Prior knowledge:
By secondary structure, the protein is α/β, with parallel strands linked by helices. The chain has a single domain, classed as Alpha/Beta hydrolase fold, catalytic domain (Rossmann fold). The chain has helices spanning about 35-45, 70-80, 95-105, 125-140, 145-155, 155-160, 165-170, 175, 180-195, 220-230, 250-260; strands spanning about 5, 10-20, 20-25, 50, 90-95, 110-115, 205-210, 235-240. The protein is globular.
Amino acid sequence: MPLFTLRDGAHLNYEKTGHGPALFLVPGLGGDGRFWQPQLAELARHFTVVVHDHRGTGSSSLSRIDYSVEQMADDAAQLIEGLGFSRVHWCGHSTGGAMGQVLAIDRPQLIDRLVLSATWARSDAFFRRLFEVRSGILATQGPAAYLKASALALNTPAWVRAHDAELAAAEAQAATTIPVPEIVLSRIAAICRHDRLAELPRIRARTLAICARDDMVTPPYFTDDLVAAIPGARALFLPDGGHLYPNMRGPEFRAALISFLTES
């Protein structure tokens, strides 16, 4: 995957594939563009798909900065413009959805249609407590324990039961996946500060908000909040799939995404 140089000299690792209107697929807190790998082949038949690793994750620069959702969104905006796109469709999952809100409010000329996947506009007591626990585990017990605990919130029980060996293998590589825990802690603090709820009525992009009914990271009421506040937004609730539903209900997710982005 090529590297894009940001204005401060840091790099974003990205991949561009397919043909058609530009579609940015933006991952969540983990920040690794490979989250979208199961979706790329089908979506690339309809769109020029761009995925990237957030700064501080994957193969992008591991910058030791004070992270914010606005900074993450600005990095992505630089990539959009640097690749020569004037306007793109944006599908952001979780933290990627928070970034999409920021761009649709602050840089509306960049966003055509907006898909907000398993995301939130303002944290609440549940969200804060969940991430306080996850941060505490990472800070005191290390990356392997953090991944083990996170898997229980991100995935459905049935998926965990069926993928125990896969999860154990990922935990064994945790020090490679999370080489600088301080970056993850800063990114968690950033998403807990995210609050654009009062500004959502300013969004003019055609918007679809999707989540699974059993999501235990961004429960469905967050999607209700988004749809109530964004003019003309619509919601799609899948019956199950947990927080990582795109990769558990891939066909339904792709069908909904393609239909929404291509409708007249």
